[in-house]
UniProtKB/TrEMBL annotation:
GO terms for molecular function: lactoylglutathione lyase activity; metal ion binding. Gene3D superfamilies: 2,3-Dihydroxybiphenyl 1,2-Dioxygenase, domain 1. This is VOC family protein. PROSITE patterns: GLYOXALASE_I_1, VOC. It holds the Pfam family Glyoxalase. Keywords: Metal-binding. Residues 10-126, 169-283 form the VOC domain. It comes from Salicibibacter cibi.
Length: 283
């Protein structure tokens, strides 16, 4: 888990907008395995360890339909501590009849599904970083079939899925963007991430501290895709954790240097990427 704490810069929290709070809470508790940390009439903070919120959900007033072609959330990704945890949730999904996608990315093994509003979710376990194949600063990743029987062999006898383990963290976020060439300087020159993998001219994967990726960026909804309406379900903002105040000051200066705005809202530094994805800069 060294890729998700200081001095690494990483995504620590995601806030999403939903149409029906009660429906979403039921899904995130019963299917994903979150606990509710705090709740109001229109919001809920979701936690794995009972102390730290990883995902916030906010109910919209008179939600508009989610566009099929827009920028915003592709998925947020919950990183499990062990491969055995992935085995446990696969077994749970089989028992409950939950339909999921899956993939072996070489660096990690992943499951994919969506919440009732179409917000994408990945649940994954990393392979040990010593097994990742790096060449010239680029990490090898793929989209291969998942070896489900191999993962299930990791299941401990008598161990059942009891919800997300306490060591679960926000592993990464993957975003739809309008233009990779315009987006790349914002995340690299501005926020300071490194490009660690490319998928032709359609996707970039960026990280800090030699992780396989903290953020994915793609144009799979089309180059020039518009930002979604504020009142449609989807990403409201995500939070990047910076190691210290000096780093945040440097990041703010660099973001402003490339022409993007940084504002302070209720004591929080906020910026927006060229595709309209809002980001909170926390220390």
């Amino acid at each position: 888990m060294g890729f998700h704490n200081k001095p690494t810069t990483f995504v620590e929290h995601v806030t999403i907008k939903v149409e029906n709070l009660a429906r979403s809470i039921q899904f995130y508790k019963e299917v994903i395995g979150f606990k509710v940390l705090e709740q109001t009439k229109t919001t809920a903070q979701l936690t794995a360890d009972g102390k730290t919120s990883l995902v916030s959900i906010e109910q919209l007033k008179k939600a508009l339909p989610k566009p099929s072609r827009s920028t915003g959330l592709y998925h947020f990704a919950l990183l499990l501590p062990r491969r055995a945890d992935l085995a446990n949730i696969i077994n749970y999904f089989i028992e409950k009849g939950v339909r999921v996608g899956s993939s072996d990315h070489w660096v990690s093994e992943s499951l994919y599904l969506s919440d009732p509003d179409g917000n994408g979710i990945e649940i994954y376990a990393d392979r040990d970083s010593s097994e990742w194949d790096w060449e010239n600063g680029q990490v090898a990743m793929a989209v291969d079939p998942l070896n489900v029987p191999g993962i299930l062999s990791e299941k401990k006898e008598g161990e059942l899925w009891k919800g997300l383990p306490a060591g679960t963290v926000m592993g990464h976020i993957h975003l739809h963007v309008a233009d990779l060439q315009k987006t790349k300087p914002f995340y690299t020159e501005g926020l300071g991430f490194d490009i660690v993998s490319k998928l032709g001219d359609q996707a970039l994967f960026i990280s800090s501290g030699n992780y396989h990726h903290h953020i994915g960026l793609n144009t799979w909804t089309g180059v020039g895709a518009p930002a979604p309406p504020d009142k449609s379900p989807g990403l409201k903002f995500f939070t990047i954790n910076l190691p210290d105040e000096a780093t945040r000051e440097r990041v703010v200066a660099n973001v402003e240097k490339i022409g993007a705005a940084v504002t302070k809202e209720n004591g929080v530094f906020v910026t927006t990427d060229p595709s309209g994805n809002r980001i909170h800069l926390e220390v």
